[in-house]
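Supplementary Note 3. Input sequence used for the single-chain structure prediction.
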Amino acid sequence: MTIRLRLTLWYSGLLAATLIVFGCAIYFFVNMNTYGEIKNSLRQQSNSIQFYGKNFSNELKLGGVGGLYEPDLYLQIVNYREGYISLDTTMKQMGLEFPYPKASKNPDRGFEKARVSINGHSYMFLIYQRPLYLEDGSLVGLAQVGTFVGSEERFLAGVRSILIFSSLAVLLIAFTVGLFLARQVLQPIERVIRSTEKIQNGSDLSVRIPMEGPKDEIGRLVYTLNIMLARLEMAYNGLDESYRAQRRFVSDASHELRTPLTTIRGNIELLQRMWTKTMDPKAADGIVLALDAQRLEMSNEAMQDISAEAKRMSTLVNDLLALARADAGYVMEKVPLPMFPLVEEVARRAQLLPRTAEWRVGDLSVLSGATVIGNHEYLQQLLFIFIENAFKYTSEGYIELSAKRTDDQVGVIIRDTGIGMDPEEVPHIFDRFYRIDESRGKTVGTGLGLSIAKWIIDEHRGSIEVTTIEGEGSTFVIWLPLHFSEPDSSTIIEAEDREEH
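The predicted structure, written as discrete structure tokens, is reproduced below.
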């Protein structure tokens, strides 16, 4: 429920309660004034009835029968003891008789309204009744004085109708006007909401909420929000500049580190070849005989360690460079690529990688004719990341490369019988520098390979499916969307010509 509707309902509810109280008060006073004099007359006429002694029938006196009674007043006396009713002359002529309670109910003194039928017509009477007692306190009769109040009842019914319908009309008008006024009052908040939604959807923190109207509570809110947006823009720009500087630093550092690492690796390999020739027993001039074989062996081991570390640092730098490109929003150049020759080349080159498990190549024929929009180098890197991971974590058994295809996707499958992993680890394996605890310290790696693979998959609008059982192995399925080339117009024309002939 909106604030506008809640405000209107609260306002209308308070107004309705006020109208009800006001209407009831008006009706009470009108009713009291309408029946006040009539009730006084009925009470006076009833009190004028005098009753003395012990014999009800003989000592009952109707005070002032000869004109003492006011016009339009009717008198009825009920004799409970002897069981008859005394009516005044007018009531006898009209055939009018008031209803009365039984003696067993001990009637009280007071006013009652009763609808009485006269000659088939119904009339409303106001009746004042007074019980009559003997000196010993026993009830013997009931004196009833009544008058016709039909005009008063019609008047009060009209008052009730006017109060009800006028209250409903006022309430309806107030609800409508209140809804309109609430909308006008909350219109500045609607502008604030629309402006903030534009800022959210456009991600442009330089947009400000327009200041309109007086500087009331809404104006102060708009002013405060604009100041907050200005500070957020400054903070965001500062962070964005820091991120850009960080990405530039990582990219530049990666570029700068690649050159000395390449030089180190080249020199180490040259020295390794030189020491290997020197340690060869068949080397010319018998130089090996003049050198300390143990020192040569230690030097060779040191160079191997340096070469391994330099290779690892080169891999780390290359991975950091790839991730820096990803963070910087690098867009790959993608063209239509046939999948079969690409995967076949990867399978051929993978068999030359160091491994201890068997390398198997399954059925790749489903890739024939399959084309994707992608980058040849990055797709090869993607497949080698998963294959090298499988070689790394599979000490025995086999690693198999196969493929499958659906109507709109092609999947490359890398299955291994290695150590597998806990299924709870799967959501984290694509995080940067994340490595599974069981393999930590047993295998060499930076923990960046799968992060790069995830970036390449996302850039190609693909997905990855992981199935793993701890201690039994893992299966990775790389899904890439197929590209269907549209036939050119010349092919369509030739086909139509053949159909015509």
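The longest strand covers residues 121-133. Residues 217-279 form the longest helix (63 residues).
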